[in-house]
């Protein structure tokens, strides 16, 4: 195709740049605010770069023991949750990639129903309480372990692995388990990567689990802490007071304000995703494409 | 004779597939515990629930709890709000990805296209609470939006506390949904567009069709199926609600409840388990009816359905 510069094309390109700028601007502005002196930022006029650069806002947060703990909880729930989730999803997906076995349809329906019908918030709460799961780390990981949609995505991918590979291995005397472990699992690496990314993002971004089911402050994760910082003004006052009492704010020329620390907290909570996402974008999209193909 | 043979064959098939069943066990068990076991708990919607007695021994009160739903102003408001917000949201967020996908499709320079795509997908991967964190900064009294308004507003401009006023709640909600979802929403449309035969465009060009005519007569019909399907599916979600965004945007100056925030506040915060459960149940039933209807229509119209 010839490349022609048309008026329409230029306008289109210009609009797209504008849209991208709108998409990106809030993040750049929060970054700039987070790295800017608090009192100076309170004058307004911060755009996409810090006017009076400082790291004090981050120091307030990163020296807070609550934040360190919450980060650890977040990381643990991502790691444990992703591993558990992959295991449950992959084993089921492999089973469903088989052409037929007695009860296949029944089990499919059984696993699918919860996508549309659920007991709801309070019956779940009562169940977790009966199971003594409330206020434990397992709340983050166990309830969401199986996801029908992810499983179907994996199954669709596994089905594309040629049967001849499995048959050849069978002739060589490989057991079903060996085939699964030595052939299917390694060949499923791309879909495992895709699903684990989705799982990891989901666990990292989860803040309703601690809101509903976790009282203990020791088990709250980073997203939940951000929610409290954003919604409870006394939370921020306490963090600032702690920082002053413990002498973490030693640079007296710099001022720290709740707004600036809030911005820093947003940056800390989102930075893993911002850093990782652009490099792994293609895996995310691949998942959607596979999921979009039905049967 | 025939029956026993059938049974024997079934048993043989099951034994032959032993590993399959073992592999399915984790999924079956976790689904049972975390999805099916809470379901019987719905009965507390019909009880005068006493935590000490539990859901099996608490006295039944018939439909009293449901009567309380219909006599509660706050709950009925939350139901109305939910539908109102969802309809507005659908009107705003449904066409946006189609438009953006059409625009992206016209870009010939692939690096430029990729950069725009990467940037516009990004918000989708942030949690709602982070999004609200971002918006608290840019809509702050001395944030960039107020700065911009002050620039044009002259000397007697009064800075606006956007997040502390009821009238800005719905616009903020809609804009944030647009901001977070539009980019990612293009993925599926771009996939549909990429399947279009290029010869159609070449033929149209020879026939003298301009760009807009090509979009109207070739691109749009090609993504119609996808669009209809997505539209029908989102109708199924009209009774659901985005708890995370509404809850995150709520503050003492905003009086706006949707069903899910009402369930949380009544059920878990105030501890009125039966009322919370009953409201949740009504939402679930109507939601399911909508999904089922949407699925039925979808099958009629596009031949594609959820089940």
From TrEMBL, chain A:
Gene Ontology biological process terms in this record: transmembrane transport
Protein name: Carbohydrate ABC transporter permease
Source organism of this protein record: Bianquea renquensis
Pfam families the record matches: BPD_transp_1
Spans traversing the lipid bilayer: 7-28, 72-96, 108-131, 137-158, 179-201, 260-280
Domain ABC transmembrane type-1: 67-279
SUPFAM superfamilies: MetI-like (SSF161098)
Entry's family note: Belongs to the binding-protein-dependent transport system permease family.
Cellular localisation: Cell membrane
